[in-house]
Amino acid sequence: MLRRRELTLALAALAMGRVVRRAGAQSPTTGAASGFTLAAAGAGSAFLSFAKAIAPVIQRYARLDVTIRETKGSNENVELVSAGQVAFAALNMGPGFDAWNGKGPFAGRPLRGLRALVPMYETPFHTITLRSSGISKLADLGGKRVGVGPAGGPGEVFFRGIADALGIRATLATGSPAEMGRQVLSREIDAFWWGSGLPSEPFVDVTQAADAAVFGFTADEAAAFGRLFPYFAPFEIPAGTYRGQTAPLRSMAVWNFVVAHEAVPADTAYAVVAALLGHSGEVVAAYPAARSMRADNAGANTFMPFHSGAVRYYRESGIALRAELSTG
Question: Which domains, from first to last, does the chain contain?
Answer without folding.
Answer: 4-122+255-325 (3.40.190.10), 123-254 (3.40.190.10)
